[in-house]
Amino acid sequence: MQVTNEELLQIIEQAAKEKTTELYLSDNQLSSLPPEISQLSNLTKLYLSDNQLSSLPPEISQLSNLRWLYLDNNQLSSLPSEISQLSNLTKLSLHNNQLSSLPPEISQLSNLTRLSLDNNQLSSLPPEISQLSNLRWLSLHHNQLSSLPPEISQLSNLRWLYLDNNQLSSLPPEISQLSTLTGLSLHHNQLSSLPPEISQLSTLTGLSLHHNQLSSLPPEISQLSNLTELFLNNNQLSSLPPEISQLFNLTRLFLENNPQLSSPPPEIIEQGTQAILTYLRERLEGSLRQWISKLLVVGEGGVGKTSLLRALRGEKFDTQESTTHGIEIKWLDLTHPSKAGTTMHLKTWDFGGQEIYHATHQFFLTNRSLFLLAWNARLGFEQGKLYYWLDTIKALAPESPILLVATHIDERDADLPLAELRRKYPQIIEHCKISSKISRGVEELRQAIAKAAAKLPLMGEIWPTTWLNAANAIRTQPKKQITPQQLWDIMAESKVADISKEVLARWLYELGEILYFQDNEELNDTVILKPQWVTEYISKVLESEDVINRKGIFTRQEMNQLWRDLEPSMRDHFLHLMERFDLSYRTQENRDLSLVVERLPLDAPNYEQKWQQIKQAGECNEISMKFQLNTIPAGIPTWFIARQHRFTTGIHWRNGVLFAYEQEHLALVEAVKSDRYLQLTVRGVYPQNFFALLKDGIELLLRRFPGLDIQRKIPCLGHNGKPCSHEFDYEQVRKRFQRNKLTIECPKATEDEDISVIELLQGLDWTIKDAVLDSLKDLKKSNNEIKDKLDDIQNKADNLLELTQREFTKDFRRQQAIIDSHCPNVFVLRPHDAKAWKKNLVGQKLYLQLYCQEPGCWHPTQEGGLYEINEPAKWLRETAPYISRLFSVLRYAAPIVGPFVSLLNDQEYEKVFKNDLEFTKELAAKLPQFKEPGGFPIDRDEDFDPERADGAALRALRQLLEEKDPQQHWGGLKKVLTPEGHYLWLCEHHAAEYKR
What fold characterizes domain 292-453? Predict the structure, then answer.
C-alpha cells in the first residue's frame, strides 16, 4: 500500500505516544522519512524494506534503543555518518540498494552482529570495518569488490562471510586470522589460486569456490579438519592434491565442469564424494603412472582391420585371414613420442564389421579412446560408409580422436573428400594410407597412432600403487570368470583397503576391464575378466540360422546347443547378460523363450487396426513427441524395445513396437531411418502418465549417445477441433513457460488463436508440476461430486497420481546413484503422543515410517521400517526443505489395498494412513520454526541442480536409518533401477514386477 506523508506522521505520532518498540513500515512506497522519526525513542526494531528511500535523515541517529534496522530493497546511494550513533544496533540489513561506499563511521556500531550489504555497488570496504569486533555475519555478495582490506582479519567473532559474485582475483593472507569462521562463500569471482594460509581456518565447515579460475589447490587445504562441504565445480582444475583425502568430515565435494581434471578420473568422480576421498587416500600411500589406453578399430567388414593390426605389431601378412566375428582384443606396444624410455601399451579392440554386430559393439565404443576408422581404397569411401561410422563415433564418443586409415593402397590410390569430412567431423586428426600386404605406410601409421595415443586422457593416468598392482594381477588372471570373493582376495593380496575394493571394481568396469554388475541379483555372483568372451557367445546367437528363421525367437534348446561348452550356470549368466545389454528378453508366456531384438523382422506387422480401435473405446486423448536425430545408430529402437518389454502387446518389428498399459492406453514407437527420427505417440484416457514413463526410457536410451544431435518436436494441439501439421520446438516451448509466457502462436493457424503452453507440456515436462498438482486436486474434488463419470475420473486420478509420485523420485536420481546418500526416501512421520505434539513439537518423540515407492501405489512397509527419531528438532532442521517437498506430493496419496499391506484390515489401515497424512500435513506447516537461527546456506547458486539442496537432507536420513538399522533391512525395501533409469525403493511384491 502507499502511505502519504501525512499518514506517516500520524503513524509516528501514535507510535511515540504508545512507546512502540517495533514498527513495520515495509512495502509502503515511502520515498523519504520525516525528521520526526527521531521521536520514537523506545523503538528497538524498525522495518523499512521494500520502499523507495533514496536517503536517510540524520535524525535517525537519535533512535538510541534501536537494535534491528531493515532497509533492504530501497534506492539508498549513501548512508549518513550519523548512523554511527546507533550504538545499540545489532542487525543492519541494507541488501539490494545502490550503495557505492560505506562511511568510515560505520565502524562505531560496536554491537553490530549482523550486517547485510549484498546486491549493492560497493567496489571497496573501508579499513575501519575491522572495528566491528562483535560482527558474526557479514554478507557482501553481488557487489563489485576487487580486493579485501587486510584489516578484515580483525573481525575476530565472524562466523559467516559471503563474498560471492564479486570481482576478487586474490585473497589477503590475513584472512587466515578469522579463527571463528564456519562458512566462507567465494563462488563466482576471478580467483586463480588460494593462499596457503587458508588452511588456518580450522573452524570452517563450508567453503564455496565454484565458478572461479582455480587451476590448483594448495595441499594445506587438508588442514581444514572440520570442513563438511567443498564446492569446486566450474573451475580449471587439472588435479586434486591427494592431501584433500585427509578431510575426514567432508561429506559433499563437487567437482563438475573442470574440463581438464584428470585426477581423480571421471569414473571415480561419478561414484561420489566417498569414492573420491577413497581414491585420493590410496594415492597418498603411493602412486604410479599407467601407460595404458584403448585403440578401437572399426569399419565395414572385409576392409582389412585385422591385417592392419597384424602389420602394426610386425606380424607377417596372412592371405587367408579369416573374418572377425565379434571382437578380438590384443595388445600393441608403442614408444612414447616425447618421453624417452616410456612404452605405451594400447589395448586394441578389433571389431567385426558386419552390420549385425554393430548394436553389440556399441557397448565398447567408449569415450576417451583412440579410433582407427578403416576403409578400403580399392572399393572407395562410399562403400566404406564413412559417414555412417563417423556419425556413430560422434554419437558414442564425441571427445575421442579419429584416425582415418585407407587400406589396400597397393591396388588403388585413396581418394576421399578429406576437407569436407574434417569440417563436418572435427574429431578427425589425420588420414593415413597403408597396404598391410606390402607394408607400405605402416611405420607412418604407427607414428601417427603413437602421437595421438600420447595425448589420450587415460595415457599416463596416475593410479594408486595398490590399485595398479591389483589391476595388473586381474589382467593376468588365466581364468575368464571368477567369483566376487575371488576378486576381493586378489585385491587384498595387492594391499587394497577393504573400503576401496568396490570403488576399484566399479572403475575397472567403467574402463572395460571387467564385467561385474553388483546391483543385479541375477548377475552379481560372477565377475567376467575377459569381456570379449561374452561377445563371442552373443555373436553365435546373432548368427544362428534358427534364430534368424524364427524372426528373433531364441529357445532354451537352441541356447543349450550354441553354448554347449559352457556350464549350465554360465549359460544362464550369459542369457542374463544379453538381457542386461538390452539385446533380448524372455517372453512372459514362456520363460524358456527369448526374443532377440536385433533379429526382429524389418517389415512392420499390421498394427493399424489395434492402434485405431482404442479411439472407439471411449474417451481417447493423444500425446506425441518426435526426436529428430542427425543419425540413427544401431540399437535405436531395438534396445528400447527390449528394455520396455513389460508393456509388450506382441506387436514389434526391427524399427518399431506397439506397447500397452493397463488396456486403457496404447503407445506406438517407430524409428524412421530415412528421415532420421524417432516418434513416440500415446493414446488413452490420460496418456500423459504412460507417455512420461516411455519418454524417460527413450531419454535414457539417447543418453548412451552423448554426441548425438537431438531436436525434440511436439505437434500442435490443432485448431477448432481440426488437426494441425505444425510442430513446435520442445525447448522453445519450455523456455516460454519458464518466462511465464503461457500461450504460443501457431504459424499455421488461420485465425488469431493462442495455444496453451501448459497443455502442450503436460506429460512432457515436470516444470509444470504445479499445474499437474492442481489438476490432481481438482480430480479428487470431482471424484466426490460426479458419480456418473466416476470410472473415467478415477482412471485419470490414478494415472496423474502415478505420474506425480514417479516424477518426485526422479528428482533424486543422482543422489540415489551414489553410496553417500542412497536410501529409501519416501516416508511419513508419526508422533509418540498425538496430543502433546500440537502444543509443543520440540522435545516430543517422533517416529519415521518408510514407504514402498512404487509410483501410484505408495504404501507403508510390512516388515519393520518404523524408526524412532531421538532428536526430532535437530533432525527436522536438517531435513525440513526435503520434507516439505515430499509432503507436497504425499498429501495426494490414497490408501492402497493389496497383499503388500496385509498386516492390518482395510478399516484399520485406512485409519492409520489417514492419521499419518493428517499429522504430516500439520507438521509441514510447522517446519519453518525449525530453521537454524541465523543459519544460512553456504551456497546459493541459482544454477545448481535442485538435488543439491536435498543432498544434506538425504544424508541425514541415511545416517538415521543406518544408526537404527545397521543391517540395512529398511523395512524389506530393495533399491531397484527401473528400465527407465529411475531408482525406486520397493517392497518384495513390487520389486518382482521389474525382474525380467
Answer: Rossmann fold (3.40.50)
| CA-to-CA separations, 290 to 284, 462, 463, 476, in angstroms, rounded | 16, 6, 7, 16
User: Is the bond leading into 637 cis (omega within 30 degrees of zero)?
Assistant: yes
How far apart, in whole angstroms, are the C-alpha atoms of residue 371 and residue 629? Answer: 23
Q: Exposed, middle or buried, 763 (CB in 10 Å: 0-12/13-18/19+)?
A: buried
Task: State the pLDDT confidence band at 902, using cuts at 50, 70 and 90.
Answer: low
How far is the C-alpha of 65 from the C-alpha of 88, rounded, in Å? 6
Classified as helix, coil or strand, 134 is: coil
Q: Read off the amino acid at residue 513.
A: E
639-662 in b/e form (b: 16+ CB < 10 A) is bbbbbbbebbeebbbbbbbbbbbe
Architecture per CATH, 5-238:
Alpha-Beta Horseshoe (3.80)
Q: Give 807's pLDDT tier (boundaries 50, 70, 90).
A: confident
Distances (CA, A) of 886 to 813, 816, 830, 958: 15, 16, 15, 16
What single DSSP character describes residue 317?
A: P
Q: How far apart are CA 155 and CA 199, in angstroms?
A: 18
Q: At what angle do helices 442-453 and 305-312 cross, to 10 degrees?
A: 80
Q: What is the pLDDT of residue 421?
A: 94
Mean pLDDT, residues 622-651 taken together: 92
Mode of pairing for the β-strands spanning 859-860 and 846-852 = antiparallel
Measuring CA to CA, which residue among 468, 435, 429, 463 is closest to residue 449? 429
Name the helix (H) or strand (E) containing 994: none
pLDDT at 942 exceeding the cut of 70: no
For residue 975, list its beta bridge partners. Answer: 985
Kindly calculate the radius of gyration of the chain based on its CA atoms and give it in whole angstroms. Answer: 33
| Matching residue, cell 513446435 | 728
| pLDDT given for residue 611 in this prediction | 93
Q: CA-CA distance, 391 to 707, in Å (whole number)?
A: 9
pLDDT band (50, 70, 90) for residue 929: low
Q: Where are the domains of the chain?
A: 5-238, 292-453, 465-598, 610-773, 774-806, 812-992
Residue 766 identity (one-letter amino acid): W
CA 16 to chain centre: 57
Asked if 327 and 351 count as a contact pair (C-beta separation under 8 A), the reply is yes
CATH code, residues 610-773 = 3.30.310.200
Q: Do 209 and 237 meet the contact criterion of CB atoms below 8 Å apart?
A: no
SS3 877: helix
pLDDT tens digits, one per residue of 528-557: 998 888 888 888 898 899 999 999 999 999
Q: Phi, psi (5° rounding) for residue 531?
A: -55, -30
Give the residue from 637, 737, 615 showing the smallest Cα distance to 694.
637
| Residue 572 CB burial class (10 angstroms; 0-12, 13-18, ≥19) | middle
E strand segments, 556-700:
584-586, 593-596, 621-629, 648-653, 656-661, 665-672, 677-684
- pLDDT value of residue 533: 87
Q: How far is CA 232 from CA 216, 257, 261, 511, in A?
A: 10, 9, 11, 25
How many C-beta neighbours within 10 Å does residue 19 have?
Answer: 10
| 119 Rama sector, left if φ>0, alpha if ψ -120 to 50, beta otherwise | left
Query: In sequence order, which ranges of 739-812 are alpha helices (DSSP H)?
Result: 757-761, 769-785, 790-810
Task: Please list, in sequence order, all residues whose beta carbon lies within 8 angstroms of the beta carbon of residue 585, skipping any fewer than 6 positions away.
Answer: 579, 594, 595, 597, 642, 645, 996
The rounded Cα 8 to chain-centroid distance in angstroms is 53
d(Cα 301, Cα 299) in Å, to the nearest integer?
Answer: 7
What is the C-alpha to C-alpha distance for residues 73 and 48, in angstroms, rounded to an integer?
A: 9
Q: Where are the beta strands (DSSP E) in 367-460?
A: 370-376, 402-407, 428-433
